C-alpha cells in the first residue's frame, strides 16, 4: 500500500509547533492529512515536503533550529509567560482564563477578546523584532490602575547570537531541552506568588520592548520611559537558550511596606 | 723425671692450652671470618648507604633547583602583583581625581541650580501676580457685566411697562379714532342727506362745522401720530426684549465662562501643584535645575552607567584574572605544602637513617673496640708465641684501620648530610615564609575578589533594575487601551489619527527642509517675524470681520424679525446619541406667550417639526404640515406685496408693505375679502382661505377641484372660495413662516425696494377693504 508522509526538514518539533501556531488553519490542512499529495505551500519556506513509500513513519529532524523558529519560540514563550503572570498575579479574574496543555504543563490562557488581541499583536511584533535581532528586552510592567505606580516588572532579557543574524546560519539544540528550560521558568513564575507581595488594589499591565535605536516605531507603539521601580527587590529566575536567543528572566518588585518595617 | 713430668705436664698444659688457643684461634678465625663477613656486609651497607646518599643528594639537588625555580616564579608573580597593585593605585588616584572634578562640577551645577531656582521663583511670583491681576480683572468685568445686565433688565422692564401703558393709550386712541371716524361718516352721511339747503341756509354754521370737523380731523391725525409713536415704541419694546434675551444669553454665557474660568483656575492650581511637585522632584534629583537638565542628566547618568559597565567589564576581567591567579597560587600552595610534607618526611627518614647509622657506627665501634682488645690480648698471647699469628694481627690491624677510615668517612658524610639537612631546613623555613606571604596575598586577593563580586552584583542589580543606555537602546511601549473606556478609546483613536497626520506633515516638512537646505534655515527668523506679522494682520482682519459680521447679522436679524414678523433662533444641539443637529425656533412677534413657538430640527436638508405644548394643541395637531412645502405660491405673495402700492391712505402702509398686508390680512373679514379677490384674479390658481379660530385667524389652502375636501391633492393648483367653515391646514405661524420663506426667496431675486406690478383688481380689494372697514 502506498502511503505518503510529510517530512519536515530544518526545524524542530517545538519550532514547528510555534510555526504552526502562526499559520492560518487552511495552510495546516495538508500537514494534518496523510492520504493525498497536496502541493508544497509557499508560505512555509523552511518546511520541505517529501514522500516516503511503505513506511508510515514520521521523521522529524529535531536538533536544527533556525532564526525564525527561535524567534517564534521566544515570542510564544513571552505570550504564555505573560498570560501566566496575568493569571497568577490576579490582574484579570480567573474565570476569564482557560487551561491548555503546553510545555508539559497545563498553562492558562486568557479568553478576554481584548486582551487576546492585544497579546497577539504584541507577540507578532516581538517575533518580528526577534527575527531581525533588534529586541534586547521585553518587560511586562504591572501598575496600579488608580495611581499608575509601577508595582512589578517582569524582565525578559534577550541575547541574540549575532552570527546567526549576520550569516543566517542555523544552530543545533534539542527541543526537549528547550522545553524543559521553559517549563522550569513557567514553574518559577507560578510559584512566584509565594514571595511576591499581594496587590491590594486593581492593577493594569503594560508591555515594554527595549529595542535597538534604529528600529522604526510601529503605529501602535510609542516611545516610553522605562517605568522603573525605585529601590526594588529583585529575584532572578531561570533562563532558557535556543542557541540563537538566550532569555534571562527576572522579576523586580516594589518592596512591601511590611518588609521595610521589619 | 720430675722435670720430665713437669715438662710433660707443661707439654700437656701447653697442648691443652694450644688446643684451647687453637680452639680460640678457630674461634677467632671463625669470628674473623664472621667479622670479615660482617665487614663485607657493612661495606655493602656502606656502599648502599653511599648509593642512597648519592640518590638523596641528587634528589635534594633536584628539589633545591625546583624550589629555586618555584621561588623565582613566586618572586616573578610577586613583582607582577606589585605592578598590578601600582596600577590599581594609579586607577584609584585617577578615580579620586575624577571624583574631585565631579564634585567641583556638582558644586558649580548646584550654584547654577540655585540661581535658576531663584529665577523660576521670581517668574512664578510674577506669574502669580499677573494671574491674580487677571482674576481681579475678570471679577471686575463680571461684576460690570452683571451691573450692565441688571441695568438693561430694569430698562427693559421700564420699557415693557411703558409699552403696556402706551398700548392701552393706543387702544383708547383707536377707539376714539373709530368713534371719530364713525362720527365723521355720520356727519358726511348727514351732510349728504341734508344736502345743500342747510349749507345754503346757514353757510357760516357750515363753515364753523367744517372748521370744527377739521379741528377734529387734526386731532385725530395727532392721535394717529401718537398711535404710530406708540406702535414704534411697541416695536422698540420688542427690540428691547430681544436685547434683553440676548443679554440673558450673554449672561448665561458669562456664567458658563465663569464656571469654565473656575475650572481653568482649578486646573491651573492643579498644574501649579504638579509643577511644585515636579520642582521638588527636580530638587531631589542632584545636578538638575530645570527640565532641560533632565535629559542631560539622564545622558550623563547613562554615560556613567556605560563607564561603570565598562569598569565592571574590566573589573570582571581582572576578577577573572585574579581568580585564575588565585587558583594557580592555591594549586602551587597545595603543591608546595605537599612538597613540604614530602621534604619533612624525607628529612625524618634521613634523620632516622642517620640515627640508625649512628647506632650502627656505635655498635661497629664497640665491636672494633672489642676486637681491638681481643687483638691486644691476642698480640699479648702472640708475643709469647711469635709466628703465624703476627700476620693475622697485622691483617686485622690493617682491616681495623680501614674500618676506622671508613667510619671516619661515614662520619664526615654524616656531617655533610647534617649540613645539607640544616640547609634544607633553612630553605624550608624560607619557603614557609614565602608561603605565608603568598597566603597573605591570596587572602588579600580573595578580599578583593569579594569586593569586586559585590560590585559586580550591584551593577547587575542596576542592570536588572531596568536601566539602559540611551545611545543604543530605546524603550517602546505598546499602546494599551485595555483599561480605557470607549469614549477615551475614541479620543485615543482620533488623537492617533491626528498624530499620524502630524507625523506625515512633519515628515513632509523635513523633506522640504532637506530639499531647500540651508536657504530656509538662514532666513528662518526673518521669515518667522514676517509670518508673525502676517498672522497679526490676519487676526486683526478676522476680528474686524467678526465685528462687521456681528453688526450685519444683528441688523439682518432685526430686519428679518421686523419684515417677516418672526424671530428665528438657530441653535446647535446634540442628540442623546451624539449626532449634532441644528434646531430652529420660530416665534411670532404676535405670540401671546413664550410657549407659542414652533421648533424644527434641521438635519442634512430635512427639517422635522418637534412636538411641544403649542404644536400638541388639538387644532394644530390635526394639520398635516408638509415641511418642505411651506412656501406659499408666489402669486399670493406677489398679491400681498402689491397691495400697498395701490392702497390709501398711504400712512397705513408706511411699514414694510407686505407686513401691512399681513396685518390687514390678520383681520378675518379683510382676509376673506382678500381671498375673494385672489380667487377672482385670473392670474392665480392658488388661494388662501381664512377663518377666525380662537381670535387668531388661521389660513388654509384647499383644493378648488373638490371644495368640500381640504387638501385633497398634493397638486399646487388651488382656487379660493368662501367656505362656510374652511378647514384649518396651516396655523398662522406656519403661514407666516411660509410667507417669510417665500418672501426671502422673492427678495433674493427682486431689487430693494421691491417693485411690484400692481394688478387691476388690487384697487377693488382696497376699495372693498375700505368699504368693509366703514
From TrEMBL, chain A:
Gene Ontology cellular-component terms for this entry are: cytoplasm; kinetochore; nucleoplasm
Lineage: superkingdom = Eukaryota
Which PROSITE patterns does UniProt cross-reference here? Answer: HORMA
What does the UniProt entry say about where the protein is found? Nucleus
Q: What does this protein do?
A: Required for the execution of the mitotic checkpoint which monitors the process of kinetochore-spindle attachment and delays the onset of anaphase when this process is not complete. It inhibits the activity of the anaphase promoting complex by sequestering CDC20 until all chromosomes are aligned at the metaphase plate.
Q: Which organism is it from?
A: Platanthera zijinensis
Tell me the keywords, alphabetical order. Answer: Cell cycle, Cell division, Mitosis, Nucleus
Gene Ontology BP term (one): cell division
User: Belongs to which family?
Assistant: Belongs to the MAD2 family.
Record flagged with keyword Nucleus? yes
Record Pfam families: HORMA (PF02301)
Specify whether Cell division is a keyword of the entry: yes
Q: What is its main location?
A: nucleus
State the PANTHER family in the record.
Answer: MITOTIC SPINDLE ASSEMBLY CHECKPOINT PROTEIN MAD2, MITOTIC SPINDLE ASSEMBLY CHECKPOINT PROTEIN MAD2A
Gene3D superfamilies attached to this UniProt entry: HORMA domain (3.30.900.10)
Q: Tell me where in this chain the HORMA domain is found.
A: 68-251
Listed name of the protein: Mitotic spindle checkpoint protein MAD2
TrEMBL record, chain B:
- Per the record, the coiled-coil ranges are 156-257, 428-548
For this protein, the record's Gene3D superfamilies field holds: 1.20.5.170, 3.30.457.60, 6.10.250.90
Keyword Coiled coil tagged: yes
Pfam families, per database record:
MAD
Keywords per UniProt: Cell cycle, Cell division, Coiled coil, Mitosis, Nucleus
Query: Where does it mainly reside?
Result: nucleus
Write out the annotated subcellular location.
Nucleus
Q: Which GO terms describe its cellular component?
A: kinetochore; mitotic spindle; nuclear envelope
One example of a Gene Ontology biological process annotation: cell division
Key word Coiled coil present: yes
Q: Which family does it belong to?
A: Belongs to the MAD1 family.
Q: What is this protein called?
A: Mitotic spindle assembly checkpoint protein MAD1
Organism lineage reads as: Eukaryota, Viridiplantae, Streptophyta, Embryophyta, Tracheophyta
Amino acid at each position: 500500500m502506498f502511503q505518503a508522509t510529510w517530512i519536515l526538514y530544518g526545524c524542530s518539533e517545538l519550532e514547528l509547533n510555534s510555526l504552526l501556531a502562526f499559520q492560518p488553519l487552511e495552510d495546516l490542512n495538508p500537514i494534518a492529512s496523510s492520504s493525498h499529495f497536496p502541493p508544497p505551500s509557499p508560505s512555509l519556506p523552511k518546511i520541505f515536503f517529501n514522500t516516503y513509500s511503505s513506511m508510515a513513519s514520521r521523521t522529524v529532524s529535531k536538533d536544527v533550529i533556525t532564526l525564525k523558529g527561535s524567534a517564534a519560540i521566544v515570542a510564544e514563550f513571552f505570550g504564555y509567560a505573560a498570560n501566566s503572570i496575568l493569571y497568577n498575579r490576579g490582574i484579570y479574574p480567573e474565570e476569564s482564563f482557560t487551561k491548555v496543555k503546553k510545555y508539559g504543563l497545563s498553562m492558562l490562557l486568557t479568553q478576554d477578546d481584548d486582551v487576546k488581541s492585544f497579546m497577539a499583536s504584541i507577540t507578532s511584533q516581538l517575533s518580528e523584532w526577534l527575527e531581525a535581532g533588534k529586541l534586547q528586552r521585553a518587560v511586562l510592567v504591572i501598575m496600579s490602575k488608580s495611581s499608575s505606580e509601577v508595582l512589578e516588572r517582569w524582565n525578559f532579557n534577550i541575547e541574540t547570537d549575532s552570527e546567526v543574524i549576520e550569516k543566517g546560519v542555523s544552530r543545533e539544540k534539542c527541543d526537549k531541552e528547550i522545553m524543559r528550560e521553559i517549563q522550569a521558568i513557567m514553574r518559577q513564575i507560578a510559584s512566584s506568588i509565594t514571595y511576591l507581595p499581594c496587590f491590594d488594589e486593581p492593577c493594569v499591565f503594560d508591555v515594554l520592548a527595549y529595542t535597538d535605536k534604529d528600529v522604526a516605531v510601529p503605529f501602535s507603539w510609542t516611545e516610553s520611559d522605562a517605568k522603573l521601580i525605585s529601590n526594588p527587590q529583585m529575584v532572578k529566575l531561570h533562563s532558557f537558550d535556543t542557541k540563537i536567543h538566550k532569555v534571562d528572566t527576572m522579576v523586580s518588585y516594589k518592596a512591601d511596606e511590611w518588609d521595610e518595617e521589619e | 723425671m720430675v722435670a720430665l713430668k713437669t715438662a710433660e705436664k707443661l707439654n700437656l698444659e701447653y697442648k691443652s692450652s694450644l688446643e684451647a688457643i687453637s680452639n680460640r684461634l678457630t674461634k677467632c678465625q671463625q669470628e674473623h671470618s664472621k667479622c670479615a663477613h660482617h665487614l663485607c656486609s657493612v661495606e655493602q651497607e656502606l656502599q648502599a648507604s653511599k648509593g642512597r646518599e648519592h640518590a638523596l643528594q641528587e634528589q635534594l639537588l633536584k628539589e633545591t633547583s625546583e624550589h629555586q625555580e618555584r621561588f623565582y616564579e613566586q618572586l616573578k608573580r610577586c613583582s607582577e602583583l606589585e605592578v598590578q597593585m601600582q596600577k590599581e593605585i594609579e586607577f584609584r588616584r585617577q578615580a579620586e581625581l575624577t571624583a574631585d572634578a565631579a564634585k567641583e562640577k556638582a558644586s558649580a551645577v548646584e550654584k547654577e541650580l540655585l540661581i535658576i531656582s531663584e529665577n523660576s521663583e521670581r517668574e512664578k511670583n510674577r506669574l502669580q501676580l499677573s494671574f491674580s491681576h487677571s482674576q481681579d480683572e475678570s471679577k471686575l468685568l463680571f461684576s460690570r457685566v452683571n451691573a450692565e445686565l441688571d441695568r438693561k433688565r430694569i430698562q427693559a422692564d421700564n420699557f415693557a411697562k411703558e409699552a403696556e401703558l402706551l398700548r392701552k393709550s393706543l387702544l383708547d386712541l383707536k377707539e376714539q379714532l373709530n368713534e371719530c371716524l364713525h362720527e365723521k361718516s355720520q356727519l358726511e352721511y348727514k351732510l349728504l342727506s341734508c344736502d345743500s339747503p342747510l349749507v345754503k341756509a346757514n353757510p357760516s354754521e357750515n363753515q364753523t362745522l367744517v372748521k370744527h370737523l377739521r379741528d377734529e380731523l387734526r386731532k385725530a391725525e395727532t392721535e394717529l401720530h401718537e398711535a404710530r409713536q406708540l406702535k414704534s415704541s411697541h416695536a422698540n419694546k420688542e427690540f428691547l426684549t430681544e436685547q434683553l434675551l440676548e443679554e440673558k444669553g450673554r449672561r448665561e454665557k458669562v456664567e458658563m465662562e465663569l464656571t469654565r474660568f473656575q475650572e481653568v483656575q482649578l486646573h491651573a492650581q492643579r498644574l501649579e501643584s504638579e509643577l511644585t511637585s515636579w520642582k521638588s522632584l527636580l530638587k531631589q534629583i542632584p545636578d538638575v535645575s530645570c527640565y532641560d537638565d533632565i535629559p542631560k542628566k539622564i545622558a550623563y547618568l547613562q554615560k556613567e552607567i556605560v563607564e561603570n559597565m565598562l569598569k565592571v567589564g574590566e573589573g570582571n576581567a581582572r576578577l577573572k584574572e585574579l581568580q585564575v591567579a588565585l587558583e594557580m597560587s592555591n594549586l602551587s600552595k597545595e603543591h608546595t605544602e605537599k612538597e613540604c610534607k614530602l621534604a619533612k618526611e624525607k628529612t625524618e627518614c634521613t634523620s632516622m637513617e642517620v640515627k640508625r647509622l649512628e647506632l650502627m657506627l656505635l655498635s661497629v665501634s664497640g665491636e672494633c673496640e672489642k676486637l681491638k682488645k681481643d687483638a691486644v690480648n691476642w698480640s699479648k698471647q702472640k708475643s709469647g708465641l711469635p709466628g703465624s699469628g703476627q700476620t693475622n694481627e697485622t691483617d686485622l690491624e690493617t682491616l681495623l684501620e680501614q674500618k676506622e677510615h671508613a667510619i671516619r668517612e661515614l662520619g664526615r658524610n654524616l656531617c655533610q648530610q647534617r649540613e645539607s639537612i640544616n640547609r634544607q631546613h633553612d630553605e624550608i623555613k624560607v619557603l614557609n615564609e614565602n608561603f605565608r606571604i603568598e597566603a597573605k596575598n591570596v587572602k588579600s586577593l580573595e578580599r578583593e575578589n569579594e569586593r569586586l563580586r559585590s560590585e559586580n552584583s550591584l551593577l547587575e542589580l542596576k542592570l536588572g533594575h531596568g536601566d539602559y543606555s540611551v545611545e543604543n537602546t530605546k524603550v517602546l511601549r505598546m499602546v494599551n487601551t485595555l483599561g480605557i473606556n470607549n469614549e477615551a478609546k475614541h479620543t485615543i483613536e482620533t488623537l492617533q489619527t491626528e498624530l499620524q497626520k502630524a507625523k506625515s506633515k512633519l515628515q513632509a516638512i523635513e523633506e522640504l527642509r532637506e530639499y531647500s537646505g540651508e536657504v530656509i534655515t538662514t532666513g528662518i527668523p526673518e521669515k518667522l517675524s514676517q509670518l508673525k506679522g502676517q498672522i497679526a494682520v490676519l487676526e486683526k482682519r478676522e476680528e474686524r470681520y467678526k465685528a462687521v459680521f456681528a453688526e450685519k447679522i444683528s441688523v439682518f436679524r432685526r430686519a428679518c424679525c421686523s419684515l417677516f414678523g418672526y424671530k428665528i433662533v438657530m441653535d446647535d444641539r446634540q442628540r442623546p446619541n451624539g449626532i449634532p443637529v441644528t434646531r430652529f425656533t420660530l416665534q411670532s412677534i404676535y405670540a401671546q406667550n413664550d410657549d407659542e413657538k414652533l421648533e424644527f430640527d434641521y438635519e442634512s436638508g430635512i427639517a422635522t417639526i418637534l412636538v411641544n405644548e403649542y404644536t400638541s394643541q388639538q387644532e394644530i395637531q390635526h394639520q398635516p404640515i408638509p415641511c418642505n412645502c411651506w412656501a406659499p405660491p408666489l402669486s399670493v405673495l406677489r398679491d400681498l406685496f402689491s397691495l400697498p402700492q395701490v392702497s390709501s391712505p398711504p400712512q397705513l402702509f408706511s411699514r414694510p408693505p407686505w407686513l401691512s398686508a399681513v396685518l390687514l390680512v390678520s383681520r378675518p373679514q379683510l382676509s376673506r375679502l382678500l381671498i375673494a379677490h385672489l380667487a377672482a384674479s385670473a392670474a392665480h390658481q392658488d388661494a388662501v382661505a381664512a377663518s377666525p379660530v380662537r381670535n387668531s385667524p388661521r389660513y388654509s389652502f384647499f383644493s378648488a377641484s373638490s371644495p368640500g375636501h381640504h387638501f385633497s391633492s398634493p397638486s399646487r393648483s388651488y382656487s379660493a372660495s368662501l367656505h362656510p367653515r374652511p378647514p384649518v391646514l396651516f396655523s398662522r405661524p406656519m403661514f407666516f413662516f411660509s410667507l417669510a420663506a417665500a418672501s426671502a426667496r422673492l427678495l433674493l431675486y427682486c431689487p430693494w425696494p421691491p417693485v411690484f406690478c400692481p394688478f387691476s383688481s388690487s384697487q377693488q380689494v382696497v376699495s372693498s377693504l375700505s368699504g368693509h372697514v366703514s
